[in-house]
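If your schedule permits, I should be very grateful for your opinion on a structural question. I have a record of one protein: its chain in single-letter code and its fold written as C-alpha cells. Kindly check, if you would, that the fold set down in the C-alpha cells agrees with what the sequence suggests. I remain grateful for any guidance, and I place the record below:

***
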Amino acid sequence: MIQSALTPDYEDYKTRTTTKLKENIILHDFLVDRLIHADVARIQNDDTFFVFEDTVRNMILFWLRDEWIGRNIPKTDDIDEVDGTDSVSHMAEFKKKVVQKSNEKSEWTMESQIQPPNGLLPFRGLSIYAMPVCYLHAGLDGAYMMFRELYVRYFHPLHTLSPHHPSLLTLSTLFESLFKQTNSKLYLHLFHTISSPPHNTAFGWIMFGFIGYLDIEQTLLLWDRIIGFEGGLELVAVLAVGVFLFYEERLVGARTEKEAQYILSDLSELKVVPLIQYVLFVVNNE
C-alpha cells in the first residue's frame, strides 16, 4: 500500500474521502467533465482495459474534485504542466487572494472558489495513468486512493516541464544523452540519415511511463521497479533506450521515417527487465 496520510483507521479515512468526492460529483457538474468523458471513451477500443471504462471514468472525476491533489503535488514556481495549466503554487497564491477578497465581503460562494478543486485541468491521455491501477484493486475506492498517491509522486512529474528532476524535460534529456552514449551510430542514423529523431517517438513512452504501450504484465513489472527504487523514474528513460537497442538491426536498415516508426509501433512482445538490465549492466560496461 502506498499511503501519505497517517491515520489510525485507513479504511474509515478511505471511505470518508471517497464518499465526499462522490457527493461532489452528484452536486457539481463541471464543464471539464466533458473532456474527461471524451478521454475515457477511448478505452472502449483497448482490448486490455475496456472492461475498466466506468472505473477509470470515476477515478478521473474523483481526481478532478480532490483538493488533496493540489495540496500535495510539488510546489515549484517554475513548473509548467504539459496540459497548459498554471503551476499549483500560483493557483494556491491566487486562491489566497480570492479567499481574502471574499472574506472582506463576508461571503464565500461556489463561484469564488478555484475550479476545478484540484487546481489542474484534465488533458488528452490523462485516463491512461489510471488504467493499470484497475488491475490492483477490485473496488473503486481502493483503486482511487492508490491512483492519487501514484499521480502525486510519479505521474504528475511525467507530464510536467521543469528543469527540476524528475520531470518530462529532464527524463527526455536523460534519454537522449544515454542513447548517444550507448549507441551513437544508431542515433545519428535515425536523427540525420532518415530524419527520424528518436525523442519524437520516445516522448510518448516517457510521458505515459509506457502505460498503454507494453503488455499489462510488463507495465506492472516496470512500475514495480520504479516504485521499489523510491522515485526511480529514470528507469523509464533507460527502458526507452533499451527499446531502440533491441530493434537496432531493423532500425539500421530503415530508410525512411515511416519505416522506423512502423518498427517501433508495437512493443507488446518486449520484456522489460532484460532490456533495463542490458542497458544498465551490459552496454554501459562495454
